[in-house]
Amino acid sequence: MLYRIGRALFRFMFTVFFRLRAIGMDNVPSDGAVVLCGNHTSLLDPPLLGTPLKRMVHFMAKAELFDIPVLGPIISRVGAFPVKRGGVSRDSIRLAVQLLRDGNMLGVFPEGSRNNAGGMGKKGAASLALKSGATVVPVAIIGTYSIFRRMTIVYGKPLDLSAYAGGSSEDLELATEAIMKEIRRLHTAYSKGK
């Protein structure tokens, strides 16, 4: 319930203040395990990633956020779960894989944090998808979150990562590069038409 209310509020905010345009929502499976992999430039990226979709999106969030009064309980109730700063614990990975095996959707930013450090790290998205058998959907977030300037979110076609199912470090690097390459391609292709 709280997730639906929050999604409606963010949908209103993104539509009115950032003229949100969402493309390719039909590329996101309506059920089953999905990893949404997007580029990351702002603290607003996580809510933007899930706002246009009907399904709930789960996210990893810095453990410190869960200690903040009011915020901690809210983000827990909207599907976020904690990850320790400086590295992802086995418990966090286990929970993420279980969420996917249970048929949920997870939002991940393969670049890591906005500063390209922390979060799931570079190979995390590919690793989670390959361990769980989840569908990977690349997502390009285009825009700067400037008031009354258009923000565009593009959900690409699901990627076939079966060639990297060996799970070696090299496989994970190649799978991650395939994901990032498609995110960059979507970003470039749709930035021209902004």
Note down, in words, how this protein is organized.
With 194 residues, the protein is α/β, with parallel strands linked by helices. It has six helices and seven strands; from the N terminus they run αββαβαβαβαββα. Strands 1-7-6-2-5-3-4 form a seven-stranded mixed β-sheet. α3 (71-77) links the parallel β3 (57-62) and β4 (80-83). It is globular and about 45 Å long. Residues 34-144 form the Phospholipid/glycerol acyltransferase domain. Pfam families: Acyltransferase. Keywords: Acyltransferase, Transferase. This is 1-acyl-sn-glycerol-3-phosphate acyltransferase.
Kindly report how far apart the N and C termini lie: 34 Å
- Approximate shape: globular
Q: Please, what is the average pLDDT?
A: 88
Topology as a string of helices (H) and strands (E): HEEHEHEHEHEEH
Strand order of the largest sheet: 1-7-6-2-5-3-4
Strand content: 15-25%
Biggest sheet: strands, sense, closure? 7 strands, mixed
Low-confidence stretches: 115-121
